[in-house]
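Deliverable D4.2, example record:
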Amino acid sequence: MKVTYPHMGNLFLIANAFLKGLGCEIVQAPFCSKKTMSLGTQYAPESACLPLKINLGNFLEAYERGADTLVMVGGIGPCRIGYYSQVQRQILEDLGLQFKMIVLEPPDAHFKEVWQKIVILKKNSWLNVIKGLVLGWQKILYADELERLLSHLLPRVKNPHTLEKIYAQAITELDHIDKFKTVKAIAENTMDKMRKLSQKSNLNVLKIGIVGEVYTVLEPFANLYIERKLGRMGVEVERSVYLSQWINDHLLGGLLNLKSLACYKDLAQPFLRHSVGGHGRETVGGVVDFARRGFDGVIQIGPLTCMPEIVAHSILPAVSEAHGIPVMTIYLDEQSGEAGLVTRLEAFVDMIRYRKESKRLKESV
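Output generated by the structure prediction step:
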């Protein structure tokens, strides 16, 4: 059994550690690239949303490396993620590829089924399985902290390239170690290096929140590295969801003591009282949260044709007006280009700067 899985941000850190603890032979797909997108788009239905296409590309590239078993998460409700596995399985079968697909459904709906599928993968002792899971979880927590620090420092340091290089090296090192103490040491040493980089003076840093569909928020290839682009424009970015939060809510049923995405549902109540699938309600609540915390603007991102995000998009003008915060929506698919994205980001950032400066001048009069 040679196991692979789809990429989503730094998910590979916990996936590799957990699968290794289970005793699986891991075949990691190459990180998402234009080739990944091309393969997925070639064989996926044209109307399929972006995550399905990129995930399919991940599987096809992993097959080229010898993978024969796919592990992915499922979903419930109106969001189409619940159908991904069936559509992808049919496509792979039509291509004549022999894959075994193991789908881990959300535990709040199918906990017994999740347990049974983990048992199928298990080749080691339960002690090794638990160690792998805990090690992977620790890696993800520190990776999220490194990402937050990267977003904070990117608009402030004189050499963003050096900062990004230090971060990337740390993520690579975290993936290859198997000792708890080493994980902490690498993370702390990296954060120390990042903080010591020379910073600019006379800064006018804006703060923008990112909300939207979880895959396009967490996978930088899918969102055309929007956080890095904003950082180089003098913007500090914060997401409404980080990978550890998504894993805790979606795969662990909110078992661990982390900020739950459920808090956004409460904030969305005045505008959207019912689930619309995916993270539509969390998107609305995330905008409210960023507005209350004094952010300068919010960007909603999601795959083209994503129904939950389209519903949220229709509500966001009311949220923007009620809380006095600018909101821009960006939909992404395989046709999205960097030049167009940069133009829209620059215009949004310029508008926010002008708005903020005008407000400051009025208050000083």
